[in-house]
Design a protein that fits this description.
Elements lengths: L5 E6 L5 E7 L24 H11 L17 E4 L8 E4 L9 E12 L2 E12 L3 E5 L6 H9 L6 E6 L9 H6 L1 E4 L11 H12 L6 H11 L15 H12 L6 E5 L7 H14 L5 E6 L2 H4 L5 E6 L2 E6 L1 H8 L3 E7 L14 E7 L2 E6 L3 H12 L4 E6 L4 H12 L10 H5 L3
Parallel strand pairs: 7-11, 7-12, 9-10, 10-11
Antiparallel strand pairs: 1-2, 3-4, 5-6, 5-8, 12-13, 14-16, 14-17, 15-16
């Protein structure tokens, strides 16, 4: 019989379809067709490749969930990644139709029955940068990821990835160049880490010669080499996330899609994972990460995109956005009583003045006025206890946007600050 490539669904933690994974003919097995033999039986004996071969031979023929479609292969060219790196397959210049943008969504709309999930969404994800989708639960972050991978088709509008349409005959090429990590990645707990990665390598179509090198490279990148021979069921949450990230980069994807990658992690593990994500852009990879935690994106994101009710509320470089909302220098001053600061209300160069107790918040025309202001107060005998420049955070920016655009109301019983601290 003829062997076909199968489109295997990748399911997220909430049961939603996140993406399709294409299986090579030699694997041709759906991920959930793995047997569940108890530990200690013959399935635990032999090398990784021998165990995988036994599983294939004892697994029934899979049902073809998605019929194969006749597609024209995208021309490719071989790119040498340099000493110590594996040769990667890249589309030829004729196939790379986009410029510096890896992902473009233009006027995309998506509804599920009567429920509108995405409304006129416009996204631009630059190459070799980390873009972070921010927003509360239900804002449309996961749906946007599914549109990018081709797991969902826009009702209207256009989505292009690498200059190609993920829902056209080019979809297989798009997905081949993507790596996806869901909030709670599905791993095979009864297998060890090595077997999980080997199985993924088979699904990605890596050759028997390349797979061991790719597995070791990915395991070293995410610091799980020492745990590869342990059953994944005994991994900590942080270790499972590292394994999922290693699995996602086995085939050296050009675009990494992360949906809540630090969900359930302790602060130390979360920091480690985010540091590794930052390192991945150094060799030209593009990262799109979804999160509702503002502190995660602080200092990590090259670009933030705030979604609200399925629409792009605001996007840009965090520092540039903050400058747009706070173009002038703001400084907080504190004295023993605070009343001796009231003279600043009428001072030349002061745009606004607010005082709460012994602390005053002053907005000035220029940065140079801060030094002049401090000197003037010292000469007039004011005893300053603190001079604190205001540096807006992402939380400050988010609160300002919500207030100015009047897009939301705090939940009953909770302040706006308490609510948005979770966003």
């Amino acid at each position: 019989m003829d062997l076909h490539y199968l489109e295997i669904p990748l399911i997220g933690a909430d049961g939603d379809l996140m993406a399709f994974r294409t299986t090579p003919p030699e694997a041709n097995l759906p991920p959930r067709a793995m047997p569940t033999n108890p530990p200690g039986d013959s399935d635990q004996i032999g090398s990784t490749s021998e165990r995988l071969e036994r599983r294939r031979s004892t697994t029934t023929e899979p049902t073809e969930l998605y019929p194969p479609q006749a597609t024209s292969p995208t021309p490719t060219s071989t790119v040498d990644a340099g000493p110590g790196h594996l040769t990667a397959s890249k589309p030829s210049p004729s196939a790379e139709k986009s410029g510096d943008d890896t992902v473009l969504l233009n006027g995309v709309n998506k509804s599920f029955g009567d429920v509108t999930a995405i409304t006129d969404l416009n996204l631009r994800i630059p190459r070799a940068q980390i873009s972070v989708l921010l927003g509360p639960n239900g804002a449309g972050k996961t749906t946007a990821i599914r549109l990018i991978t081709g797991a969902l088709t826009p009702d209207t509008g256009a989505a292009t990835v690498f200059g190609l349409s993920p829902t056209s005959e080019d979809g297989e090429e798009v997905r081949r160049r993507c790596g996806v990590v869901t909030a709670k990645p599905s791993l095979y707990d009864r297998l060890n880490g090595q077997d999980n990665l080997q199985y993924a390598a088979d699904l990605y179509g890596l050759s028997k010669a390349d797979a061991p090198k790719r597995i070791l490279e990915a395991a070293e990148q995410f610091d799980i080499v020492d745990a590869l021979n342990q059953q994944v069921g005994g991994y900590s949450t942080g270790m499972k996330t590292r394994l999922a990230l290693a699995r996602a980069v086995l085939h050296r994807p050009d675009l990494l899609l992360l949906d809540e990658p630090t969900s359930g992690l302790d602060p130390e593990s979360a920091h480690s994972v985010l540091s590794m994500v930052r390192e991945m852009t150094s060799d030209g990879k593009t990262v799109l990460m979804c999160t509702h935690l503002l502190l995660e994106a602080e200092g990590l994101a090259d670009q933030i995109i705030i979604l609200q009710n399925g629409s792009n509320l605001l996007s840009g470089v965090p520092d540039h956005l903050a400058t747009g909302y706070w173009p002038n220098r703001i400084v907080e001053l504190r004295t023993a009583t605070g009343s001796d600061l009231d003279q600043l209300k009428s001072r030349a160069g002061t745009i606004s003045y607010e005082r709460d107790g012994n602390t005053a918040r002053v907005e000035l025309e220029t940065t140079a006025n801060v030094a002049d202001l401090v000197s003037e107060l010292a000469r007039s005998g004011v005893g300053l206890e603190a001079v604190i420049p205001f540096e807006p955070t992402l939380e400050d920016l988010y609160l300002r946007i919500r207030r100015d655009d009047q897009l939301a109301t705090p939940a009953p019983g909770g302040s706006e600050t308490e609510m948005t601290a979770k966003l």
